[in-house]
Structures are given as structure tokens and as C-alpha cells.
Amino acid sequence: MGKVLSQQQISAYNKEGFISPIDVMSEDEALAYAQRLQTAEAKYPSHLTGVNRNNGHLCFKFLDELAYHPRVLDAVEDLLGPHFSLWGSVLFIKEPNSNHFVSWHQDATYMGITPRHFVTPWIALTHSDRHTGCMSMIPGSHLNDIQPHKDTYGEDNILTRGQEVSNVDADQAVDLILKPGQMSLHHAMTIHGSKPNLSQHQHRIGFALQSFMPKGSQQNIGQNYWSPVRGDCTQKGHSYLTRPQTDMDTNNTNERDKANQNFSDILYHGAKIKRDY
Ligand SMILES: O=C(O)CCC(=O)C(=O)O
Asked: Chain centroid to CA 115: how far?
């Protein structure tokens, strides 16, 4: 038994490449976070759209609280051990009745980080189910190597390049149904994707901590900018990002911009087209 995960859940993660659902907070608490997001979007509209849906935890307190939520970190520790850092975060928002989708992909493909044994918690702030476009995972796919990805730049695809693995047997996919306040955990090599939000009224909001990296992980394309999280995170050549004490302090937005430029340089490395997210 780990701090949060049972031995059975840890074994399932190793075998299938994901675990879901895991309770993090109450539904009311999660909806209060969704409300804080809405308030922040109204106050700072350009800071929570496009590229700025990345790394918001570096300049907004409510996203920092989620990134460092003890239940999330305890579950990550159960999988990675006591020493780990956070590379980045992404708000995956699908508006009601939108065509936005995520093609089948493996996170590790363009992140430039080795070894590829890192983990992403995806926290649901609203209902994430078949109707609203939940994530689906291909069990056991993390045990294979990186598959060829085709950059489609599909208009409604929310991945940077619209990168896609072909010939995925969708009949094998497992849908991760989450209530607000629950999370899933997936391995960097697991093939996953999600369909559009068919709901007329509900947003589907997920906050992905992408990803937590065990000590020893190395960035091979861009700068080594990291948020130290637990244990001894010091590594030669790494620079450390600062946590926000208040919302939108200039020092923190500068750090977010620096991290986002680095994100973009890495994720679009060698790409023919660069989009604004
Ligand atoms: O939110 C989604 O639908 C996809 C998210 C995703 O691909 C990820 O967190 O790795």
C-alpha cells in the first residue's frame, strides 16, 4: 500500500499504463476551482487562452494549489518514489458543443525528456465522461516503443501539431470517466486521446500536470526549467521556477512566459508549422 494508491492500483498502472478514477477532493471543492478559473478568465482573458493555457500554475494561486495538492503528490510519490519535479501544466478545456478533440498520441513523443517513465495526473474540474469528451486510453500501449506520429495540424485538434498515431484499435480503448474532484494518472508512453464535447451546456475542464519527472530525468531539446516538488530535486544544469504568492505578479508572469517559450521551442522542434498554443 502506498500513501494513496493500493498495491493493486500500482500494479494496474505498471500493467495498463494508467489508473482511474482517484478521489482528490470533493465535488464542491472542484467546482469552486472551476469557478475561480472562470473569475480569472474574466479578469485576465488573454492569460488563460491560447499558449497561456500552458503553465498557469506559475502565475495563478488556484492552479498552483492544484499542482501541489497533497493527494496528487502522494499518488505521484507512490509511482515515482520520493524525489520528483514538475515540468509543466496544461488546462485542457472543451467548450460546450465544440468540435475540439485530441488525436491518439503518446505524450513522450515531443517532450524531449528521457527516460520516458514520467506520469501525468489529469484533474477533472467538471464532469468528464463520454458525453463531454473524456480521455480514452489504450491499455498496455506504454510497454511498446514510441509509435510513428503524423503531424496533421487538424483544425479542431487541440494538440500542438495535431499529432496522431494511426492504426490504433479503438475497440481496445478504456474511457476514463471522472467526476469533478477526481483524477486519472497516465504514463508518458500510453496511447490516449479524446472526442468532442457533445454537451450543449457543460464545459469539460481538465487540469493536466504534464508531467511529474523522477530525479535523473533530462531535457534533451530545450532548457532544463523545472518546478522542484518533493525530495531532493537538485540536478546539474537545471534551473528552478518560482511558485506564485499572489495572482499575476510580474515576476511570475515573466517566469510563465519563459517556460512557455521553452515549451513551444521543444514541442515544435523540427515542425513545419507553429500554432499559437
Ligand atoms: O484533455 C484531453 O482530452 C487530453 C489530454 C491529454 O492528452 C493529456 O493530458 O495528456
From this structure: 18
